[in-house]
Amino acid sequence: MEWNPTALADELTGKLAMYSGGEREEIISAARWAMGLHHNQKRASGEPYIIHPLHVALILIDLKLDHMSIIAALLHDVIEDTNVTKKDIRNEFGKDVELLVDGVTKISEIKAKSKTIQEAETIRKMLFAMVKDIRVILIKLADKLHNMRTLEYLDKDKQKKNAQECLDIYAPLAGRLGISRIKDELEDISLKFLNPMVYEHIKKFVSEKKTERADYLEKVKRAILGAAGKEGIEIDVKARAKHFYSIYYKMKKHSKQIQEIYDLLGLRILCRTQAECYTLLGIVHTLWMPISGRFKDYIAMPKANRYQSLHTTVMCYEGKMIEIQIRTFEMDHTAENGIAAHWLYKKGFSKEHVRIEDLAIINKLKTWNSRAQLASTEFLEEIKSELLKDTIYVFTPKGDIIELPKDATAIDFAYHIHTEVGNHCVNAKADGHIIPLRKPLTNAQVIEVQTNPNFHPHINWLKYAKTSRARSKIKHWLNMNDPDQMLILSQQEKKKEQAQEKHVNKKEKAPSKTRTTYMNLNKIGVVIQNEKNIMVRFALCCKAVLGDEIVGYVSRGRGIIVHKKSCPNLKYIKDIEERLVDVAWETIMPKSTGRYRIRAKTETDLFSEIEQAIRKLKGNLIEGHLEKTYEDSIMGIFTIEMENHGELRKVIKSLQGIPSIISIQRIQG
Ligand code: MN
User: Fold this and answer.
1) Which of 47, 258, 286, 304 is the most exposed place for a label (fewest CB within 10 A)?
2) How far is the CA of 143 from the centre of ligand 1 (A)?
């Protein structure tokens, strides 16, 4: 890729029609100034540096931002990379532009001790910057986008680091602000550098099946257009290309092959009014059967980023599932451009920012003017839990960041500070308000723990402590100081174990009557297409167990029934071809799993013995089956889950202690 700065500047000049004459002049003069300032500098690609700010400005012009944002984009790197000061910018282009450039510069300046702290800090600074002016974030996102587009020129380490940072912070942030075009592109580029093989694989598959898919979608489209026409509704139907990262995400989340991802297929119906959206939904549901649990009404309940649409998934021709989105043209524009759609520069409106004040997100952001308020805002909670996934960050009163697992409580916090603080904590405050010790903490709270030397750990604390550090400290204290409580604890645990044994289907026999199966229902489920947590029933005729090839079908009124693929009864079910759905086994939150084969003398209580032995190593028995092979000998296969891979080595030794077991070996798969 080679860019000629002059040609690029011409392109920029050519796109300024929507700005007033005076504004155009200012933008052009900013471009000239930036060209002069950066003129000896080069990008990693070897190109003149100025092509970067020019591209960033072009991205923002496409988002139709106001002229001050465009000027700030052109100047966004001058403070960092040239001799220009904030004051110079103010003198040339005024206070607003100065603040925008300064805001963008500050975000890049943040360099903290560790990666996690740096991320938390980056997010915090960005959110604070947003409070002042949302345009700062939009400029930063455009800056990131162009840097990502030219990532190939950096070394491998930097590529990976930048790509990961994009996935962790910038893409979710763009998503939060509803700018799906930027979010999707950032995600796709990140995937390309983090996992090039998968990226190419998806790319190839998507382009190979293109014609096939287009034909199919054309047929669906015709049916919808025809039905809408009969109702007198004018619509536009768009086939929707899912971006690569969303396909990858689904494959990863459900351990599926790309061939198994059905809703690669998607359609979007655009109409004029909200009322038409609902009419069209009715039409679609008359044409094809809706899949229950897949309908979402984001028109009645818009997302936090203002996204509005109806979503439904239907069982379409050839039993294929299609996701259909229905929305008005205006809703569609908002969905593509998000917050930027509300920052539209309108000719003749001078500096009015169209409806920006209507955005709930902006109003929320504007109310933040202290850390305490920042912490209490649910938006921050939302964005952080999305950005940071299973971790929360809280602050000490001095402002140090403490990283804790999700759902951690003040007890975990106290033990994190110091064992003595933990052992004597009485109560805790979050953002100045007293909270129960058992209450899960949330992101960005400032936590204060009060201690009293006469207080000490209670057995119930073990229920509330989430970190292993806190739990082991509590147990240690109880062992040393309160052995009675520890006795209660061991009895409680025993009871719990007995209760859990009820999950063992010892009596359940498969049709052959020689097979005993075990399924830990806390650990095993079934995923349908890409949906989890769907209620399914297992057909009684064939009794599928984990590992069997299975299919599901949509029953009339009884949800989805799962059969073995080989079940002879399937062919007798009416319209079975249209009603079949793909289902797959899913182990819920597996850590490290191992599969073992054993030979044993007797099957009596064998599963519960195995389970107890593994529980001692803090593992779980997930599933298994035992079969009588010949007189007095049992063959069995089972899967267990351990905290980590290293623990798996201890399993064989521990199971050899069970008297009935003759031999044991680890197997693949
Ligand atoms: Mn830059």
Assistant:
1) 286
2) 5
Q: How many domains does the chain contain in total?
A: 5
Q: Is residue 373 part of a domain?
A: no
Say if residue 40 is in the same domain as residue 181.
yes
Tell me the CA–centroid distance for residue 339 and ligand 1, in Å: 21
Residue 356 falls inside a structural domain: no
Q: Is the pTM of this model over 0.70?
A: no
Judge if 37 and 181 occupy the same domain. yes
Question: How much distance in Å is there from the Cα of 74 to the middle of ligand 1?
Answer: 9
H or E, element range at 297: strand 296-297
From 426, 452, 481, the end of a domain falls on 481
For the stretch 282-307, pLDDT in tens is 899 889 888 777 788 888 877 766 78
pLDDT band at 101 (very low <50, low <70, confident <90, very high): very high
Cβ neighbour number for residue 28 with a 10 Å cutoff: 16
Is residue 382 one of the residues assigned to a domain? no
Q: Which helix (H) or strand (E) holds 661?
A: strand 661-667
Q: How far is the CA of 78 from the centre of ligand 1 (A)?
A: 9
Q: Is the pLDDT assigned to residue 439 strictly greater than 50? A: yes
Q: What is the 3-state secondary structure of 87-98?
A: HHHHHHHCHHHH
Gap from CA of 76 to ligand 1 centroid (Å):
6
**Separation of 104 CA from ligand 1 center, angstroms?**
9
Residue with tokens 């073990």: 462
- Which comes out higher in pLDDT, residue 463 or 310? 310
Same domain for 475 and 396: yes
Both 45 and 175 in a single domain?
yes
**What CATH number did the domain enclosing 77 receive?**
1.10.3210.10
Whether 96 is catalytic: no
Catalytic member of 10, 25, 62, 81:
81
582 noted as active-site residue = no
CA separation for the pair 566, 551 (Å, rounded): 9
Domain range spanning residue 455? Answer: 390-481
Is the pLDDT confidence value at 494 over 80? no
| Catalytic entry in 80, 200, 357, 378 | 80
In a domain, residue 348? The reply is no
Quote the ligand 1 centre to 57 CA distance (angstroms). Answer: 11
- CATH number for the domain spanning 627: value is 3.30.70.260
φ, ψ for residue 654, nearest 5 deg: -65, -40
CA of 169 relative to ligand 1 center, distance in Å: 17
Among residues 447, 453, 392, 388, the alpha carbon closest in space to that of 423 is found at 453
Binned at pLDDT 50, 70 and 90, residue 556 comes out as: low
C-alpha distances (whole Å) from 5 to each of 29, 53, 56, 395, 564 are: 15, 10, 13, 46, 64
Instruction: Say how far apart CA 254 and CA 245 lie, in whole Å.
Output: 14
561 plus 626 within the same structural domain:
no
The domain boundary residue, chosen from 481, 514, 549: 481
Query: How far, in Å, is the centroid of ligand 1 from the Cα of 484?
Result: 64
pLDDT per residue over 34-90, tens digit each? 999 998 899 988 899 999 999 999 999 988 888 999 999 999 999 988 889 999 999
